[in-house]
Amino acid sequence: MKEKQLQYLWMGSLFLQNRRKAILLMPLFVLSVNAQHVLTKEYHAPRAGDRLIKQQMEYTGSGEDGDSVCWDFSNVEIKEEEENWPVDYSALPDSLFAKIENHTRFVYNDFSDSLLLKSNENRLLRMDYGNPVLEMVFPLSYGDAFSSTFHGTGVYSQKYVLATQGGSESRIDAFGTIILPTKDTLSQVTRLYTLKNAYISISSDSAEANVISGQHIVSEHYQWYARGYRYPVYEVSATTFYKGARPASIQHTAFCFAPSDQRLLPDTLNENLAREDSIIRRDMRQHDVIRYEVKRHGNQLTLTYSLKDQANVKAVIADAMGIIYRQNQQTHPAGEDYSISLDCSGLKPGKYVLYIRVNETVYYEKIVI
Prior knowledge:
Blueprint: H1 3-14, E1 20-22, H2 41-44, E2 51-56, E3 66-72, E4 85-92, E5 96-101, E6 104-111, E7 114-121, E8 125-137, E9 145-156, E10 160-179, E11 185-203, E12 215-226, E13 234-243, E14 246-256, H3 259-262, H4 268-277, E15 279-282, E16 290-297, E17 300-307, E18 311-318, E19 324-332, E20 335-343, E21 351-358, E22 361-368
Parallel strand pairs: 3-10
Antiparallel strand pairs: 1-22, 2-4, 2-14, 4-5, 5-6, 6-7, 7-8, 8-9, 9-10, 10-11, 11-12, 12-13, 13-14, 15-16, 16-17, 17-20, 18-19, 18-21, 21-22
């Protein structure tokens, strides 16, 4: 079997606000810490009946690891010439479920707190894992890791014998904020990194199949999970095919799972989380004139407010040094459902302060653009 055929086989199985009140508007140092999001089965395990669309993107790398990272993929372009990949999940008997992606069917065992890959097949091959691939463990938070070994046998083109074995290591290597190609900015994002080493061989005779002498394949896979969304919002992979001890070729992929598409899934648990996180609320207190909400959608930041008395309301976006980038103001009598919009297009991604001045009183909120 040629090496390119082995690469095809592998690809088919692998890819398949801290709130305060101030009296004066002045330069302010803001220390913003991104809350760590824990991946739990309740909020992030795949569900039967869900359907997603993976948009193929240009590969630009995986970015940094560590805490409070800001990954900016806002300028990554969609690969218009490439077909998007639908991903469908369905239930099977005996605690099994299937995922169909890139014309390949993957069968998983939903075992307690783990997801185990038992088999994968398409029109050319079938691979059954005697020792399944451990693909996910719940719960996971920053610094957590898990690993496993696997081996399996299969058939290619109904006449060749396949054999594979290897190991994988996964860990939560980063958390922070991600800016997607869709221009959505999501905080409380956790990144799962998986390194997989595998040897795969093919022979016309099962007795001749020698996995260790087969082709060595190393894949690095990154998935970004955001609070309020069940499935990753972004993922990238780099797969290296070795010839002997030297890399023969490298293949890269990148995909975006648009938040707008994920919000269409009937997922009440995550809908409630996303709704809470997209809104900053301040209720009216005894001496307050204003009650407000701050919502962000794409590049638009909207302040919606109600007034107890007539007031001049000014909204300002500035950095931690007090440099003003956007501002708008209005004067209204007592009433409800007033709003001020600020266009954040062109602002450098990062952390800012939204100041809300109501007559002589100033409130502020920490935001990420």
